[in-house]
Amino acid sequence: MLQHGKRPTIASRHGMVAAAHPLAAAAGARILSNGGNAFDAAVATAAALNVVEPYMSGLAGRGVATCYIASEKRVRTLDFVGPISKNFPIDKLSNRSQLQRGALAVGAPGNLAGWCELNSTHGKKKLPELFAPAIAIARDGFQLIEFNIEEIQGVAGELAGHKALHPEWSRVYTAGAGNVQPGFVLKQPDLARTLEALASEGPGLLYGGALGKKILDRLTELGGCMVMDDLLAAKATWRDPVSVTYRGRTVHVPPPPCEGFQFLLTLRILEGFDLAKMKRNSTEHVDTVLRAVRLAAGVRIATGVPAPQKLAEILSDAHVETLRARVRDGKPVIGPTEQWTPPQEPVSPTDESHTTSFSIADNEGNLICLTQSLGSVFGSGIVVPGTGLCLNNFLYWADVNPKSPNRVKPGDQLPMCMAPSISTKDGNPILALGTPGSYGILQTQPQAMVQHVDFGLPLQQAIEAPRGRLTDGAEVYLESRLPPEVHADLRKLGHNITTGPEWTMKVGGMQGVAVDPETGIFTGGCDPRRDGYCVPA
């Protein structure tokens, strides 16, 4: 049925890029049209996002990808989150708020390693061509669009309070004004030069080279603990995915220490309920999904980083059936959704869900979903002078609570709440789906999956469907496009509902590509909660 006022269905036979900014999606699509494959397009898209969403991700961030590799006829994942710094002063830390900004929060940049690994292992093009769109946008500038302005303005006041960080941040992103207005053209000549140098010299410029030394010198000046060995340890690692079946399809995500298994556990729980027979967006539908999400979050938090045998037990029929029984019993489900907290001591998370996810398909059969981040908006707040690089604050996501059984250790792999997913059916790729949103990533993807798979919505409409974000205790932030009576009924069932606006980025910014296995047609889905766009090749 035609829906006026909604985004159209974007379809193509030749390739598709769904990303969080139109210029980045166009950069990837250009590479596909010029003979590159999905791995090449992923590098071009990621690099362009560095320029047009500098607060969300960049080569000095970290991330993870899930890929269907057509030449190997299998799904693999690429982890470029990297280990915690060996000198990380865990004994001096007791609360994650100590790591929200500044040098101690910075994890070794992994995104560049990930991009280069995708390209060198499975790509066809060279870095100068792949970085060219990002370099041109950075050098020539682009006019900020609505979400750009909202993000920069939203953090300008807070960063102004960090006297050691603010001058360079303001110079690079606001031309020294401290804020931006509609019509502002953002030029990043330092970043253009950095990307040109990396395209020419390769990733060794960062990992062991002059660019890496420049980053380390700035961090040392600001009291950081990172050393060159940490940069050299920031390698991209291929791993086999962890997967479950859901309604006849197999859903794959990265394995631990990635925390995407929460998404899979939620799907396993929900498969025990005939959601398709429920009224879509009804109290019964939403209550069932919210209960499953909270239970799965509780298991993930109680488990920490599970070994393969433990993960198999978590996803087993016997364990999942106990969780399904808990969904059915109707008693309120109350508990943490973020990190471990002492009993009776819930913690309300800050709104630090600044990440980006994109999905790409090509006509060779490859399908990629990649999620990358700086952590918080503008990460650590540190912009390295003369480079245009904003450094991440990934260690803000490290559990540093001295009482927590999941407390991290220096040198350990960092658990990360990302879940870029690839779904297959009969061995063929049919869906790439990912989102930003911090711990909400693990909650909102199953909500969209239910809309798409159980209720049969086309991907774009499934992404647009109203969603909720759970936080500790019984708290749920729910978009107001769900009927008021549903909000009221959910409160009676024990959910502490806060009614949000009709659309909110608090429930993510999802991008996906669906593949019709019969026709081979690619259909893109992009989230209007952000500046998402689908561009066909």
TrEMBL record:
SUPFAM superfamilies registered for this protein in UniProt: N-terminal nucleophile aminohydrolases (Ntn hydrolases)
Gene3D superfamilies: 1.10.246.130, 3.60.20.40
Disordered, as annotated region: 332-356
First and last residue of the signal peptide: none
A Pfam entry, by short name: G_glu_transpept
UniProt-recorded name of the protein: Gamma-glutamyltransferase family protein
Taxonomic placement: Bacteria, Pseudomonadati, Pseudomonadota, Alphaproteobacteria, Hyphomicrobiales
